[in-house]
Amino acid sequence: MSRMVGDRVVPAANGARPPGKPLEMRSTPLSARGEPMIWLTGGALVVCLVMIIGLVGMIVTHGMTTFWPRPVEQVTLQDGSVFLGIRTAEDDEPARTLYRTGNRDIGREPFRWVSHADIASIETPPGAVMVEREAWSVWFGVPERAVEVIDGEQRVVAEGYEAVMAYYHAEHASARQRRAEVERLMRQDLGRVNREMERQRLRVRSVELDMQRTDRIGSPMPLPAFVGAAAAVLGLLGVGVAVGRRANGHSVSGRWVRVVRLFCFLGAFIGILGCLLHAPWRGATMTEAELASLRDRTAQREVELQAEYDRILATIREKEAFDARQRLIIVEPTEGRFAPARQIEPDNPIQLSQVVRIVDTNAMGTGQKVGVFLSRWWEFLSTRPREANTEGGVFPVIVGTVMLTLLLTITVTPLGVIAALYLREYAPQGIITSTIRIAVNNLAGVPSIVYGVFGLGFFCYTVGAFVDAGPAPEVRLPPVWWWAGLGTTVAAMIMAYACGVWSRPVPGTEPSKAQIVLRRSGWALWTMTLVLAVTLVVRTPYFTGFFEARAADGSPTFGSRGMLWAALTLALLTLPVVIVSTEEAIASVPNSMREGSYGCGASKWQTLRRIVIPGALPGILTGAILAMARGAGEVAPLMLVGAVKLNQDLPVSGEAPYLHLDRSFMHLGFHIYDLGFQSPDSQAARPLVWTTTLLLLAIVLALNLVAIIIRARLRARLTGSTV
Amino acid sequence: MPYAGTEMSEKPTQGLRHVAFQTEPEKTQRVEYRVIEAIRRGEPVDPSVHASLKDCDGVIEIDSFNLWYGQAQAIYDINMKIPRGEVTALIGPSGCGKSTLLRSINRMNDLIGGVRVDGRMRLNGSPIYAPDVDVIGLRKRLGMVFQKPNPFPMSIYENVVYPLRIDGENRRRVLEEACERSLRSAAIWDEVKDRLKQSALGLSGGQQQRLCIARAIVADPEVLLLDEPCSALDPIATLRIEELITQIAEKYTVLIVTHNMQQAARVSKNTAFMYLGRLVEYGPTADIFQTPALPETEQYVTGRFG
Ligand SMILES: Nc1ncnc2c1ncn2[C@@H]1O[C@H](COP(=O)(O)OP(=O)(O)OP(=O)(O)O)[C@@H](O)[C@H]1O
Ligand SMILES: [Mg+2]
Question: How high is the ipTM of this complex?
Answer without folding.
Answer: 0.85
